Amino acid sequence: MRVALHPCYILHNRAYRETSLLLDVFSRQHGRVGLIAKGGRTQKNHKRALLQPGRRVNISWTARRELGALISVEPCQTDAPPGGGRLLSVFYINELLVKLLHKHEAHPELFDVYDEAITGLSGGASEQVILRLFEKRLLEALGYGLALDSDVEGNPIKPNEDYNYRIEQGPVLYETPLENSVRVSGQTLLALSKENPGKDRVLNEAKQLMRMMIGHLLGGRPLVSRELYKYILSTHTEKAGRK
Amino acid sequence: MSESSRLSTLIQALCCLPGIGKKSAQRITYHLLQRDRAGAKYLSTALDEAMDNIGSCRRCRNFSEADLCDLCLSHKRDKSLLCIVESPADVYAMEEAGFNGRYFVLMGHLSPLDGIGPRELGLDKLEEYLADGDLSELILATNSTMEGEATAHFINDIVQKYQIRVTRIAHGVPLGGELEYIDSNTLSHALAGRREIIK
Ligand SMILES: [Zn+2]
Fold it and tell me: What ipTM did this prediction achieve?
C-alpha cells in the first residue's frame, strides 16, 4: 500500500547500514510507523535536513508489515521548529510516544495534540504548561484520562480541599499519605480540567501527578530524557552551592 | 551444494563491514582465497592488533593506543581552544579544515531513545577537563541535526559555571550553494547568524 504525502513528525532517527536512516514516524492517520530512508545520510541528500525530530513534514511511503520504505519527504509550511534548551522537551515527548504508543495504532486526535505542543515549544509559551497539558491529553488519548471534576464518590471537586489522587481510582479527600497516590489540591485538579495550569503551585502538583500516572503506564521502564533535566538541575544546584 | 563451515563463517564475518552485504562478502572471500592469501593474512593480523591495542585517550576520548593521544600530548597545539565533536571522523574533518586547538570527542550525541545520556558522552570527563584546564574558548562543533543541536545546548548549559567563552560553529549556506535550493530551516539559521561584511 502506498501512502501519499501525509502529515508526519519524525520521533526518532537512527543511522542504518552505510547510508540509510531508520525512522520512527508519527503519522496523523496511521499512527506510529517504522520507515527506512535509503540513502538518507548521503551528503547530496536534501532529505536529511527534513528528517529531523521536531519538524512537521509531509511524507509518502510504501507501507509494509514491519518496515515501510520512504518515497519522498516535503517540508510543511509551519513555524521554525523548536530550538535551544527546548529540544530537551522534544526528546521527552517523543520518548513518551515511542514508549507508550503501539505501532500502526491510529491516533489522529493525539497527532493534533502533539502538533500543538511542538508549535508551542517553538514559540514563547511556558514550557511547563505545554508539557503538563500534553501529558494530560496523552493520558486521555490512551484511555487513561484523569478524573478531575469529581472525587471517587461522585462529589464535585472543591478548590479549597486537598485530595489523594489514587492510581486507577481517582481523587479521594486527603486524610493521611497513601501508597500509589499523590497529594493534590482541588484547585490543581480543577485547573487541569479547565486546561489552565498557570500557577506555580498548580504546575508543581500537576507535575507530581503526571509523573505518577505516566510512571504507572511505563510499568517501571525509565525515561532517559528525564535524566537529562536532572543532570542539568544537579549542575545548577552545584553552582548555586558554590556561591 | 553446501559451503564448508569455515568458508561460511568468513562470509558471515565480512558482513559486519559497512556497505558489505552477503553478495559482496562472498566475492571478497573467494578473491582472498584464490588470489591474495598473503594480503588476507596481513589484514587479519592488522585487525587483531588494532582491536587489541587501540583504546581511547584518557583526556579527549579519541582513539589512542597510549593513555594520552598524540594530539593531547603535542606542544604545537593551541591549548586554550577546545573543540567538541561527535566522532573521530569529525576530528579528522576539523584537522582538514585547519583547526589547531585540542578536541573532546563525545562518541555520539544525546539520544534518549537509544539510551545515550550525559554519562555515555563522557560529560563528567569533559567537566574534569574544564575544571583543571586553562581554556579560553570552548567550540561546540556537533552536527547541525536536531540531536547535535540539543547536545550543543545541553553542554553549553552545564559548562556555564566554568565561565569560559562558549561558541557554536556557524551553520548556513554552503559554499557554492544557491539560495533557492536551500531548505528554509538552513536559511533561517544562516539569517540568524548573519555578520557585518568585512571591509
Ligand atoms: Zn587525547
Answer: 0.89
